[in-house]
Task: structure prediction
Amino acid sequence: MYSALAVRRHLTFQSAGWDLGIFEQAIRNYASFQPPIVVLKGAGYNLLGDHFHPILVVLAPFYALSPHPITLLVAQSVLLAVGAWPLIMWAQRALGCGPAVAVGVVYGFSFGIASAAGFDFHEVAFAVPLIAFSLSALGLGRVRAAATFALPLVLVKEDLGVTVVAVVGVLLFLRGARRLGISVIILGVAATAIEVGILLPLVNAGGGYSYWAKLSAHPLLTVLFTSAGEKLSTLVLTFAITGFAALLSPIALAAVPTLLWRFASDDRNYWGTDFHYSAILMPIVVAAMIDGLARLRRGYPRARWAMPLFFTVALVVTGAAIPSHRLGLLGSPKLWEESPQAASIDTALAMIPNGATVSASDNLIPQLTSRATVTLFGLRPLGDTKPEWIIVDPDSTRHFVVTRSTELKSLLAAEQSGYFIRFQRQGITLLGRNY
Result:
């Protein structure tokens, strides 16, 4: 299901360079035993200076066998789907078969997983199953396994050492594994400190950590209450998909750091329920749901009547949210219809030879990154990138980094600076350099 959504969006030109193209350029270099240089981000830009995600190397052999962006999309779909397995198995042992099925539905159709599956590729896909296996092991009393699955998260993204690994350490401590818990806390905090304070600045061209700027300079309470309605909606929906049963477990505390840094940012993309930012929260709140209901069952046998109520609310909320997130696209005719510009795009792309240097619109970048050196058109002066070819789709919905107006101005400038039109139909424009 996730693969069908992701691949179909790519085939209908709805994926983009930001972020699928970026990750493909990095993994393409890993597959060639090269550092993850991403020319989309800048000349000689090492992606390990942006976020710390060496775990992406794991995908290099698969990409070497099938060098195509679809490889990354399917790999992400598998990782997100695998996260369901430990949660369902734990729910079956703790609550029974019926509740386990409900847990699978809640996780599988949750807005956070769906939004990640339907929005290009991101490294957090690796975090989802690791968190699911770690918290499931914790719930089953396998404390060493919980620590073992949590620690690799420090190789997924620099903030996860503090926001997840250290919190797992706290939960281990509360479960009685005090030495192990303290060790995991120390390792998680130390990993984030080293990655943010030393490794990222060492590789980053600017010599610092780029994402400090995402945190607001305003007082914390002021920022948290900015667009409070949107943030509250995200918070409520995050726990409502569990019927609010997640609030019965201390595991829910693992969601707090991630929600806090998102809401403390000035970047409004972090505040809502779209994109991939809620993906890691889904295994956390579903694990908290299982643990919370198991605690209720053990501590209050007479309250068993409440369990069907919790699951009913969870399933209703999860189902009701589907049309508003990307899994709802699976039932939309638009996803399965061919783009009216498809023939024009395919014709223009076919004219670009393999190995060429190309500057392209955001939505056309992933169509080329497996066989060409691609930059984002309009982001940098043509004098810096010197592409042999320029391909533009002005009607694309993916103008996240370069606005449509900037793209059109850059197109006019290109025609006046030595590029000539080689193909133009339905707005799709291909320019070649005039030697």
